[in-house]
């Protein structure tokens, strides 16, 4: 159960940050949406500095990236700056599945965490509804065109769309971990119950609409992007968009409230904007452009978090989000832990929920040094985008002074602008005092984003340039990938940036290759178009877009107690 | 686009009705949830009178029941009484499908209608999420038990549930008209993608959770009801409940906000509580007990609407909602129109969207007299429950004075307490001035609910008694129905009231039998148990629980304009 005793009414938080009541759309006492019109109102104000939080290669031990994003924003407030954190909204799937919530924790938590972890203000539900409206529209049109045959146009006044039943690429979505929905047959039995065909469900966070919500510049831009979504191909091989199906307007209407970012607060009353939650593999893995645009004129520092390691969410921040928004960070904060680096050494095969080997919990500088190569890689990777990099060591009780001292020295020796301990889980903003001071200094530096490829590079060149950044020696394109490239070029969509869908568990595309893989090849199986979001998905490995529930799912523990309070949610 | 210029901030509406800010959970400026704790706070206050609005047998012409429910509440305020309307929340399916919204209209409309017709505060989405969590849990458990075989218990510490794959009765839901989802195969391909089996989706309003939300007495009662839901049978033929699957707590947590009713206002600033939207065939078709309980101590009159005609929603109000809540209405208002009664004559085969025959639009007392028999039946039906009945003639421009005079005389001659014209669409509350005065008088009468059957009547007796009320000469039970009755008796659930799932388009169970059918038989195909909601569904005909989209779906017209306002929604 949340401790709300420290919380201030959200209107008071807003007032502190010059968000006038006129822009606040309250949802209960502690949450409000912020109307987008505030962006125009503040457009001539001085803009704060954007700080991008990323991490080393993730491990099952957890690095604490969200905790540190929230804690750093508290830390900046602690040293007298105005800061706002911008994070993604968690999906219900994991909440009821494996891990519980995504609100941070300890003294660096967003509250009330039940609100954050459950429906919040319904944005994800709105995406599910808008997405599945298009699915219903597709199957309905398919049915009526097939039912009425040559008379379709005469009877309806509509032109035939002639869906190619085998090339309907718009799947359905639902916000649950539901493995049985990965592959389904719809329209079973035919007749008035539709046309039988193979389909599947993905979790809502995987919807292209989620990426669009995160990338849209305003409502009209969202409308246009939704119209551009490619739903399917027709029997002549041409695309059928949401505009063609005349469903883009209704989809936008369903997202009209969802486009307004959600304001909450941390346990220390630092404002947090929560908005959108795209994955960092099949999408770009960052919270919304609109949240950043609202926050920047209101704060000295806006702290935002990118999904997975710097090879994933951070890369996509620069190549997708920054390309589209033009909003550059002033520095990158790279979160690491002693234990995770030891785990990244590749000497262990750690699985979630299993006991952690002693070598990892006991002081072991030699082991740490091996895994620290992963840290060095991520420092260099972030620096290659033109950013000063501050390493935040998320301190755990077991970490020895010797290990911590080694790591600080190591990070500086490998190019970090600064390296500092973070103790925000225990101490809140005070635990990030020094880290915040380094961030302030880094943001005073001149920095300019360096992008690894140009919009007009050939697709294959873009793929090769990114693969080189991972350290790959060679890229192998499957036949399907070559066909897809040809198709994308024919559609004149090859100017779009890439969104590499690969494992986050390795810098390479092979989860078995730990630490800093070298001399490996990358296999691209196929490409896909997110024409509304504005990127090309490049598949280097199988990406799971619909998780399953395990044998001991989290929902078993979640209930209300005799006072009606929620228990078992964390 | 909604005219919000007449609207007051919802906190002001609340204040007028002694709803203290402490109980208000604002959702934007014009909507608030009301915390259930207000019920306890007001439990010793004087209770207002409950007025139940029903209608003649519905026709494709529309009778205006919602408009008159809202208009009557305005009318009572107009004559100086305090009134609150309680209505159901519309589903997204029809909004994007055939008919647009369900907010009333003209001067008797709930505003902002976009908010009402779209997500409102997310209650329906919460039901979808809670319902489908149970579905994911079922398929996951099925998968893990089959995958681990005899080792399941040893490996998980859980007892096997042994789902009978062919008797999983908990379908999935989605809040769209999506015919292709009526019959689906899930788990296609098997392996890690689940166990392949036949399943189907219903529209969310058909979820048992929707009926539970509408019938629950408080949060703990909802928790208990959810635990009682029968999800499936096991291979030994015993029930598997949501409690058995350990998912009832999490489902309740997902509905923790949805249980609070939603406060909005009419165009004349009369408060309206919108809460739950169960169908009136496979469920009981009335808004929530909790909304009534909140409203009754705050107003002199609470106007609530029951689905379809008096044989459907009104019957279920008494036999299901009243039996469970103990809250009785003081009178029944029966809405009719001249045109609908002519249509009910059975002389025409009118379909939605097709031209209306001249005989119906031109003055024709003879024709009206034939169809008025339907009105007489519904008057007598409502009276048989012990209620004074006021007929509200929803006046249309074409209605002749002669017709209206005939109808008023006819209604009184056939047992109505009063019969009055209603012009609320054009005139708002003023258009229901006299109607409201009759309602006040009727509510001063002594009335006592008469129920047609007793809880401990045998199921077959209950079925026969209700069938006699429809006018049936005989009930035919299919073999499956007999088996189902046996099963329900074995489960000791035969004390529950019936929920007859039949067509609303006839007083009989055959939509072709118009006006007042006599000498007909009723065929019961099967029965089903809503153990959480607390009723037994008795199927007399095929009931569509997943609508489809037509060739000209409403979504085609819905969009945002250049100013970002919603267009095409009505």
TrEMBL record, chains A, B:
**Which Pfam family is an annotated match for this chain, by its short name?**
FTHFS
- What Enzyme Commission number(s) appear in the record? 6.3.4.3
Residue spans crossing the bilayer? none
Which residues are noted in the entry as ATP-binding?
59-66
User: What does the record list as coiled-coil region(s)?
Assistant: none
GO molecular function: any one? formate-tetrahydrofolate ligase activity
Note the InterPro entries from the entry.
Answer: Formate_THF_ligase, Formate_THF_ligase_CS, P-loop_NTPase
Q: Which UniProt keywords apply?
A: ATP-binding, Ligase, Nucleotide-binding, One-carbon metabolism
SUPFAM superfamilies associated with the record: P-loop containing nucleoside triphosphate hydrolases
Q: Pathway membership of this protein?
A: One-carbon metabolism; tetrahydrofolate interconversion
Reactions catalysed according to its record: (6S)-5,6,7,8-tetrahydrofolate + formate + ATP = (6R)-10-formyltetrahydrofolate + ADP + phosphate
Q: Which leading EC class covers this enzyme?
A: ligase
- Kindly give the HAMAP family that the UniProt entry links to this protein: FTHFS
**Homology family:** Belongs to the formate--tetrahydrofolate ligase family.
What is the protein name stated in its UniProt record?
A: Formate--tetrahydrofolate ligase
* Origin organism lineage: Bacteria, Pseudomonadati, Pseudomonadota, Gammaproteobacteria, Orbales
Quick one: which gene encodes this?
Answer: fhs
